[in-house]
Amino acid sequence: MSMKSDAPAEKPRRFRLIFCTALLAVLGLAASGLVERAKSKQELAAWTEDQAIPTVRTVQPQRGPSEEQLSLPGNVKAYYTGSLYARASGYVTAWRKDIGARVKKGEVLAEIAAPDLDQQLVQAKAQLVQLKAQVEQARANADLGQLTDQRTSRLVAKGWSSAQQGDTDRLTAASRLAALDVAKANVEAQQAAVGRLEELTRFKQIVAPFDGVVTARNVDVGDLVNADGKSGKALFQVSDIHEMRIYVNVPQAFLGQMTPGLRASLDLPGQEQSFEATLVSTSNALSEDSRTSLAQLQAANPEGKLWPGAFAEVHFHIPSDQNTLHVPATALIFGSDGMNVAAVGADGRVELKKVGLGRNLGASVEIRSGVSLSDKIIDNPLEMIASGDVVRLAGADAAVATAREARAEARATAARSERMN
């Protein structure tokens, strides 16, 4: 009888045990979900706060090189360039040298036939002969006048001739002497005219003014040329290319380094080799339009590879102060107090530093003061960045991502373990 009564009592107890176990399991899952949700909220808040910190890329100031290169466009000119025009009017009968020909000083380039000039010279010489004859005639008259004056003066002294006759003969002698001087002066003037025409006849030959190369010929046989015709093209152009002049417009910021003797190298399109040049002088004046000054360099040209009128890229080798630091131009911040850079400290906080600028080198600028080699300077900083702001370095992003993935993996592993238990 007791065994039958115990059996029905065990079933409610078993049901209660199963129910409690299920309830505990449900409560455990609920608690686990609540804890997981709380962790997620905390992680979301931490992630949101983490994302609010800007990530920046930093650069460090670099020392300048011992020698800087300043590259500027330049124009190559001949050492001397002579434009030859006609000094005698006439027709070209022949030309002796064509473009590209090397010539010596005094070598004939072309010949001009000038019959009008030849006739003028013949006429001038004939007039010179006439004037010389007039001098002889005037000299004879002057001698006769002096002799007559001497005789008359003796006769007047003895009373054999009147004083009036004496004065007449004396003045006549003086007049004839003056006429002789005039005749001599006319001869000298005519000799000068003949000399001038003889010089002009020499210009019937166009000659090279110096050793060089014929770089232009604008005349042909039969062309009519006019004396002193400088309004048109020159008959010939001769260039001395044993040494070349190179002209460069240098910006105002670099004029302090443009001292005579500064070395430079030239690169020309179509030429594989570079050419050495030396700065000779500057114009000591600035163009108001471009704020540049014209600098002149010279380069030896023994092989004639440098041509007048060529374009050249001029690379100046400028000595540099290695104590001057360089930073990218994109790191500068223009503020109300001048130029600044944003440096990142060891605690990840920003410090704005005022800097003294040197030359603008394009991609980088010289910093005279305000930073050191160990500073971490933010490149491309935000416009609203201020001292005290917290930033994250771009190099730390990978480590942060790795730690975040590790934490996520750890949470997933713990959740799987709890579900299995």
Structure, described:
By secondary structure, the chain is α+β, with helices and mostly antiparallel strands. Among the domains are: 1-50; 56-65 and 323-395, conserved putative lor/sdh protein from methanococcus maripaludis s2 fold (Beta Barrel), CATH 2.40.420.20; 115-203. It has 4 helices and 22 strands. The strands form 5 sheets. It has a 6-stranded antiparallel barrel with strand order 3-10-13-12-11-14. α2 (115-158) packs antiparallel against α3. The radius of gyration is 52 Å and the shape is rod-shaped. The model is unreliable at 1-5 (pLDDT under 50). InterPro entries: Beta-barrel_RND_2, BSH_CzcB-like, RND_pump_MFP. Keywords: Coiled coil. One of its GO terms (molecular function) is efflux transmembrane transporter activity. Belongs to the membrane fusion protein (MFP) (TC 8.A.1) family. Residues 84-240 form the CzcB-like barrel-sandwich hybrid domain.
Radius of gyration: 52 Å
Instruction: Report the helical percentage.
Output: 25-40%
The mean pLDDT is: 83
Largest sheet: 6 strands, antiparallel, barrel
Secondary structure topology:
Layout: H1 2-51, E1 55-59, E2 62-63, E3 67-84, E4 90-95, E5 102-103, E6 108-113, H2 115-158, H3 163-202, E7 205-207, E8 212-217, E9 224-225, E10 236-251, E11 263-267, E12 275-282, E13 292-300, E14 311-319, E15 325-328, E16 333-335, E17 338-344, E18 350-354, E19 356-360, E20 364-369, E21 377-379, E22 392-393, H4 397-420
Parallel strand pairs: 1-22
Antiparallel strand pairs: 1-21, 2-15, 3-10, 3-14, 4-6, 4-9, 5-8, 6-7, 8-10, 10-13, 11-12, 11-14, 12-13, 15-20, 16-17, 17-18, 19-20
